[in-house]
């Protein structure tokens, strides 16, 4: 008689809410894949403070998720942050950021879809994302899950220089 294996598959992914205990892994993923941040990765201290604030400020709308493989290793993350501080509109618009520890469109779609499903259960009406034009993997991911391209943000030449980016929006359905 065959029994189901109790060893989790390395290919199986779990998405869970992140917490301050995940801070080291989040920063390490960013540092390991700094080329996808176009050289704009702040120093480690600023990066730690930014992510610690994001993790501590989670509420029922704005959240941070960790993707883990079957061995419990962090392979990516997704966060929804408020896109404005304006109290009248703060809970209507979010900014999504995705970091893929391994460059996988399946992982990217899984994280983006998770965030979209979450957004549909909240007051959010729009989720925005900005992606460098050269990041064809993330552009494909966003388009595949229903984001619409709404604009091109030109390259900024004065410091801190920023690359050309595409702006996407997802209109949240209920």
Predict the CATH topology: Aminopeptidase
SSE arrangement, N to C = EHHEEEHEHEE
Main-sheet strand order equals 1-2-3-4-5-7-6
Helix content: 25-40%
Features:
174 residues; disordered N terminus; 4 helices; alpha+beta; seven-stranded mixed beta sheet
Overall description:
The chain has a single domain, classed as 3-Layer(aba) Sandwich (Aminopeptidase), CATH 3.40.630. Helix 1 crosses helix 2. By secondary structure, it is of the alpha+beta class. Mean pLDDT is 87; it is low at 1-8. It contains 4 helices and 7 strands.
Summarize the structure.
The protein has helices spanning 23-32, 44-56, 105-120, 136-144, and strands at 14-17, 64-68, 74-82, 93-100, 126-132, 148-153, 165-171. The chain is an alpha+beta fold and 174 residues long. It has a single domain (14-171), classed as 3-Layer(aba) Sandwich (Aminopeptidase), CATH 3.40.630.30.
């Amino acid at each position: 008689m065959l029994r189901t294996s109790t060893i989790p598959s390395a290919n199986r992914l779990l998405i869970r809410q992140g917490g301050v205990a995940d801070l080291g892994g989040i920063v390490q993923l960013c540092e390991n894949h700094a080329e996808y941040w176009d050289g704009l990765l702040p120093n480690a201290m600023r990066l730690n403070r930014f992510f610690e604030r994001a993790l501590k400020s989670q509420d029922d709308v704005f959240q941070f998720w960790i993707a883990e493989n079957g061995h419990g290793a962090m392979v990516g993350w997704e966060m929804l942050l408020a896109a404005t501080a304006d109290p009248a509109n703060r809970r209507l618009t979010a900014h999504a950021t995705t970091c893929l520890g391994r460059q996988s469109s399946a992982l990217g779609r899984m994280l983006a879809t998770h965030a979209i499903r979450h957004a549909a259960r909240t007051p959010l009406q729009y989720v925005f994302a900005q992606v460098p034009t050269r990041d064809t993997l993330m552009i494909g991911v966003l388009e595949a899950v229903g984001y619409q391209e709404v604009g091109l943000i030109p390259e900024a030449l004065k410091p801190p220089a920023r690359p050309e980016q595409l702006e996407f929006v997802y209109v949240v359905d209920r």
